[in-house]
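Re: the 354-residue chain
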Amino acid sequence: MRGGLLGCDVPLASRYDLALVDLDGVAYRGHEPIDGAAEGLAGARALGQRLVFVTNNASREPESVASQLTGLSIPATPEEVMTAAQAAAVVLTTRLPRGAKVLVVGGAGLVTAVRAAGYTVVTSADDEPDAVAQGFAPELGWAQLAEAAYAVQRGAWHVASNLDLSLPTARGFAPGNGALVGAVRSATGVEPSSAGKPAPTMYQLAVERAGARAPLVIGDRLDTDLGGARAAEYPGLHVLTGVSTARDDVLAAPGERPTFIGADLRSLLVPHPEPTPGAEGWWACRSAAARVRDGRLELHREAGAGAASIEDGVDLVRAACAAAWSAVDAGEPLDAESVPDLDVHDISSEAVAR
């Protein structure tokens, strides 16, 4: 799969038979729905696309996740949910025999997944566990983290469900599992194995379970969701409703770049234009264009294009990404200070350099 943005002349939901959909920042934010999520996913199903909700959150069981989605007008079954807890249990099977003792530091979802894999769950380092499985749970405190540290110091294998440093909530960004794992890492000096994104494990398990031939990853974070897509060699759609911004797309490292960009999940229901190179270094995407000149990003919108819409804003982001990535990959400098915020919900002709 090539490293730049791709075009798609039909709705993405028609081209790809399975959508691997992240949750926090994509389908909902905390306990609140995200605009366009229910509409986009319902439309995708109507076009024949199947859905699997893939989350780095290991605290909840698939039944709980499916229930929350259904309550937000996104009907889902537990079989359509793949959690980092399930992926962590699979990672454990690569080194531990069934019946081995595992100290679980996390929520009910992780406990259930580890037990279902055939392991004996313990709660203390004094039980001499063979491994520590650590996942996020809001009730975790110092005592549980200390038990994990004691066990790892004594030689237990440390497996983290994911390494997300932050967790989006309705009130803002809170410490994620990666921050809690960092406490154990700091105490022990041991680098944990990770089951969650950006490792490709969850995506590959979901695709295998669904028997899909053309999967599409959908996420809001470049470092986990889209990095995992690149690691798995699946195309990835970045929706601009969560952690990573359009400016982050322009400045993204090659291993975290999206294949498609959309304002929200309704972008599954429309074609995606591909930026094309033109004269004097310009890259065009419909009425938007961008280039890197003397190390600085320049943006342009055609005169007479009318009032800017959200889709015009996304086109400008696409053009900017194509120009920036082409320049950086060719070894040219790019001054990050020249890249504006590019909020697709607040793009106007006055915001575009001429």
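The radius of gyration is 21 Å.
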